[in-house]
Amino acid sequence: MSSLPPAIFLMGPTASGKTGVAVELVQRLPVELISVDSALVFRDMNIGTAKPDAATLARAPHHLIDIIDPTDAYSAAAFRHDALRLMADITARGKIPLLVGGTMLYFKALREGLSPLPQADAALRAELDAEIAQHGIEHLHARLAEVDPETAARLHATDTQRIQRAMEIYLVSGQPMSVLIKDQKRDEIPYRVLSIALVPSDRAVLHRRIATRFAEMLKQGLVDELRGLREKYPLTPNMTSMRCVGYRQTWEYMERQITQAELLEKGIAATRQLAKRQLTWLRSTPDIIELDCLAPNLEQAVLEKVRQFVVT
After folding, report:
1. Domain total for the chain?
2. What pTM, to 2 d.p., does this model score?
């Protein structure tokens, strides 16, 4: 392991302060940032994704931000391919890849490889869309529980995208997704990895941060941003980009399905659910160093861990 080049994973739930820490590391160490965020890949989606502003990106450029249009899709497989290419380039330049974000599936795919899951089936997906529209996502979740109880148990009953994909995998392959994932061959990356997780010592404080940040997104013009996106791109609510937390609820508000007060309430609730899922992933992730994201000396604590890792 010691002969492998180093790489750093900086993970954490939404609103844990990952970007601030990463920017500080760029100022102090020979690192280059790679974004590990399934929402930041989309162009023109800035407010609702909490995308770093131009000044921050000038101080600390991020790879894999603004790489596709909101009408396109980006997968864990595509991320793994792009990240490995970038990591090789960064290492060749004598720097250390610093991968920062909250999309835990991307981190897992990068570190362990991908399971042999079948490709998306457009016709089948359309059938499942119709079933969801007629009976609701809870109905499809119940169906999934009958054929793949393990996957159904770890998915929230309203997680439309993942429930639909799990059912699609079962219908295409005839096997539960949980079984296929267990059969995957590990394809670990050729790096010596330091994994740091920024986790809150008090989840209530994180929840307050989330509420404040979503309220600020609305003040900054999230509704106007989505209106502009809909004018620029032929978007539909089922596209991956529009299923992102914040945009999904804003779409409902623009369609007059919910009120402005409900937009704030549902946006905060969905973001809290996202943070909960991210923390669940982190708890099941081996070999990570947990640091309190609420600590006043957080940046210094991360810097010390990274320096210890780099010189060993």
Report:
1. 2
2. 0.82
